Amino acid sequence: MEKPDLIVNIIVTLLAILSLLPLAWLITNSLKTSADIYKMPPDILPKSLYLDNYKELFNNQPALRWTFNSFFVSFVTTGLSVIFSSAAAYAFAKLTFKGKNFLFTLFIGSLMIPKETFIVPLFKIVVAFNWVDTYQSLIIPNLAACFGVFMLKSFFESIPDSIRESAKLDGANELTIFWKLMLPIAKPGIGALFILNFVTFWNDYLWQLLMARSKEMNTLTVGVAGLMQEINPNMGLKVAGAAVAALPMIVIFILFQKYFTKGIAAGAVKE
């Protein structure tokens, strides 16, 4: 390894370690008593593992239900949005139809509009459908996301048209070509989109806060935020809740990091 590469690797490694320090501090504090958390100077590592914070979180709070709600909403919303985004991206990349460029421009333009600007009319629509405090309200409005279409369009464009034409000569219809040929080839991009969407929907605090009226319908993000607002001197409980809300994201990234890395690298190069 050349010296400049060694220096760059050392710098990147140090920055990676620094970026992990807040997470490590969060987890270690979740294993301390409230008194130890407020202690000055603080202990870097807990003197003993204090698990009562997690016991209180899952015994005295519906944390398991919050966790289920978060996983259910995030997985269902992510899965459906990836399917819809893939189909739309394939249509824009490979099919020919009237107004294609104009429609795609509208899709791109919608990315520039913050969700907060239309959250009030969207809320009124959900209320009119009587969906408040239901899974439909947490899932369906988030399916109309255009980022995935923009991201996956370049992946489908990089696939040679000869593959699609050969499949058509063999008698395959458009749905078969999309499902059995195009999707497997675009798997790296789909994996990267899955991670990005899952993290986005998991952390969609504002919309989940508006839609979840009962404590049982809260997601983990909203439920943990509610602990922060309660008049409760147990800071360890609140830190444990924050740790539980953060750990699933780490697990998801570890499981899908191969697809995420390949997807980002493939998307940066267009053949």
Automatic annotation (TrEMBL):
Question: Which protein is depicted?
Answer: Carbohydrate ABC transporter permease
Query: What CDD domains does the annotation carry?
Result: TM_PBP2
Protein family: Belongs to the binding-protein-dependent transport system permease family.
The residues that cross the membrane are 7-27, 71-92, 104-132, 138-156, 177-202, 235-256
Determine if Transmembrane is one of this entry's keywords.
yes
The record's section on Gene3D superfamilies has: MetI-like (1.10.3720.10)
Q: Which PANTHER family match?
A: ABC TRANSPORTER PERMEASE PROTEIN MG189-RELATED, ABC TRANSPORTER PERMEASE PROTEIN MG189-RELATED-RELATED
Q: Where is the ABC transmembrane type-1 domain?
A: 67-256
Record-linked Pfam families: BPD_transp_1
List the GO terms this entry assigns under cellular component, sorted alphabetically. Answer: plasma membrane
